[in-house]
Automatic annotation (TrEMBL):
Domain N-acetyltransferase stretches: 6-162
GO molecular function (one): acyltransferase activity, transferring groups other than amino-acyl groups
Entry-linked InterPro entries: Acyl_CoA_acyltransferase (IPR016181), GNAT_dom (IPR000182)
Name of the protein this chain belongs to: N-acetyltransferase domain-containing protein
Family matches, as PROSITE patterns: GNAT
Domain of life of the source: Eukaryota
Organism: Malus domestica
Length: 176
């Protein structure tokens, strides 16, 4: 995959069909807190009520078609210096380096967009090897394991936690 084809942009209502291709797929949503979407109407409501109002949720696109998302969840009040990263893409695109590229672009953009942000942290289920690897490739350094920290679809999970080594991450990955 030519990384220049991969872009990030805010969600649009016209992404509903494309959103269904991953948010409607249990393979993708089993690792997310989202419930699997089942209809286009649910996708439209999700885009309108969740994606568009979100302070930093971007659609990962190829040729402007949504194939996934990357989200930065900012902390509030005394936690506004830090934010949590989330991401997923449609299963047919797995293993092509797309999420790694999308996270690199997101890091570069979100620190420019968020003057108060000094820490971007990511959590990965210790059983989710693809998620751990994508963070490692995007320049995150593992800081430790948080035991019994996460709750995912009825299960308590051990989570790896880490943040990017900003010296490792290319500051402007779009200029490649
Ligand atoms: C995790 C996810 C986003 C990765 O996206 P992706 O675009 O396939 O990621 P990349 O291609 O950039 O990198 C994936 C890496 O994980 C590796 N990988 C995949 N499955 C693996 C496994 N079971 N064990 C070890 N490594 C694995 C790939 O080989 C690749 O590493 P490599 O380039 O060194 O070969 C994608 O699998 C996904 O959407 N999963 C469902 C949602 C999810 O888990 N989100 C994260 C929640 S914390």
């Amino acid at each position: 995959m030519d990384s220049k084809l991969i872009t990030l942009r805010p969600f649009k209502l016209s992404d509903a069909d494309d959103l269904m291709s991953y948010a409607g797929d249990d393979q993708v949503t089993r690792s997310l807190r989202w419930k699997t979407l089942t209809t286009k109407d649910e996708a439209l409501t999700f885009i309108k009520d969740v994606c568009i109002p979100h302070p930093w949720r971007r659609s990962i696109c190829i040729d402007d078609r949504s194939i996934g998302f990357v989200t930065v969840f900012p902390g509030s009040s005394d936690d506004r210096h830090k934010a949590d990263l989330g991401y997923a893409i449609a299963a047919k695109y797995w293993g092509q380096g797309i999420t790694t590229k999308a996270i690199e672009v997101a890091i570069s953009q979100v620190f420019k967009d968020s003057p108060n942000l000094v820490r971007l942290q990511a959590f990965a289920d210790v059983e989710n090897k693809a998620s751990q690897r994508v963070l490692e490739k995007a320049g995150f350094q593992k800081e430790g394991v948080l035991r019994r920290y996460g709750y995912l679809k009825g299960n308590i999970k051990d989570l790896n936690i880490g943040e990017p080594n900003l010296l490792h991450v290319k500051l402007d990955p779009e200029s490649n």
